């Protein structure tokens, strides 16, 4: 018996125990028994189909009782033809459908028979190098009355006519990675009529100008209030924003997450957007020196709870700690290898999480410093600590998690973790530790 024959028997044995083959698909009753495909999120009654070139033929042997189906079209074709009518009409019990591939058109009837579908994913395989310009006809989603969650990854929202959403009365969550769309106002107008929406995650890295939204042609108000009526979670991600129109984000007055870079002064630009509150700000600045004074002013103005900062240089010499009192999480992320003292941030009495990446750390704790009882999680990465001693960590009496990955630590001295009685998680990977004492 050859090695190939042996391997074939092993595969067939595994399939007979936990699943079975249906042309280009693996069908399994329980994902725990079939760990080979971890990218398909289905747990039970699922099928994963790879190298699909013809949905009609490649999926013809699938059982009708499936609850989850993952389709991965063949990578040799960047754009496939249209998603044909009745492509999935025999799968009446399907609740999740995840398609990786780009179609030229999605037609009326492409999803016929999927009246029980709750989650739909359309993902372009060539993101971020390319985008899918699929034309979605106005009635393409009419057969999905119970759809709750929609993922559009690498599909252009410009190709979706406003009335395409009319067939989704229960859609609550929309996740869109609009890699090829550069007009935020147009993107917002595409979802203005989704009054059932409670959660919106929109990534638009090509947007450079935040323009004021005018969706009156869609039947919504000029500011697009229809969009934000029921939204409780809004996450927006942009690239480098060079200009902001007054009221550009007035339809999203409260943001759960905002990620962007900006030219000009951060607070002045954010004030123009008409945003009132930002829970988590992820901000990057490649040019010039980032000012902690301005960051704290922004934190105070927009009631921010967490800030992640990406930069080359930062000035922490002069700022008002009281303006940062709402912060619960703070991250300094750079590759400048410049020194940074952490002790000036220990006055942020609501701070629970502190992360530093890329700085050399001058001081962590000092003998005269009182206990820092509010910090519970610290991550220091690429901070070149070299060694750990008892004084460095002694002030963090309520620490529950400490991540010291990749810090060139070679020596851990006696009683370095003394006093950290509440510590539950300690990570020391990617160090060159040669000595660990008591």
What characteristics describe this protein?
438 residues; Leucine-rich repeat, LRR (right-handed beta-alpha superhelix); 3 domains; three-stranded parallel β-sheet; 27 strands; disordered N terminus; repeat; transport; signal; transmembrane
Number of strands: 27
Largest sheet: 18 strands, mixed
CATH topology of the largest domain: Leucine-rich repeat, LRR (right-handed beta-alpha superhelix)
Q: Class of the largest domain, according to the CATH hierarchy? A: Alpha Beta
Give the rounded overall mean pLDDT: 86
Number of helices: 7
* Strand content range: 25-35%
Which structural class should the secondary elements be placed in?
Answer: alpha/beta
- Going by CATH, the homologous superfamily of the largest domain would be Ribonuclease Inhibitor
Domain count: the total is 3
User: Rounded to an integer, what's the Rg over CA atoms?
Assistant: 26 Å
Shape call: globular
Describe this structure in words.
The chain has helices at 3-18, 55-58, 184-190, 225-228, 266-273, 292-302, 390-393; strands at 19-22, 25-30, 44-52, 68-73, 96-100, 105-106, 119-123, 135-136, 149-153, 173-177, 199-204, 209-210, 233-241, 243-244, 254-262, 277-291, 306-315, 329-333, 339-340, 353-357, 360-361, 377-381, 387-388, 401-403, 411-412, 425-427, 435-436. The protein has 438 residues and is an alpha/beta fold. It folds into 3 domains: 14-171, Ribonuclease Inhibitor (Leucine-rich repeat, LRR (right-handed beta-alpha superhelix), Alpha-Beta Horseshoe), CATH 3.80.10.10; 181-325, no CATH class; 328-438, Leucine-rich repeat, LRR (right-handed beta-alpha superhelix) (Alpha-Beta Horseshoe). The strands form 5 sheets. The protein has an 18-stranded mixed β-sheet. The radius of gyration is 26 Å and the shape is globular. The termini are far apart. It is found in: Cell membrane. It is a single-pass membrane protein.
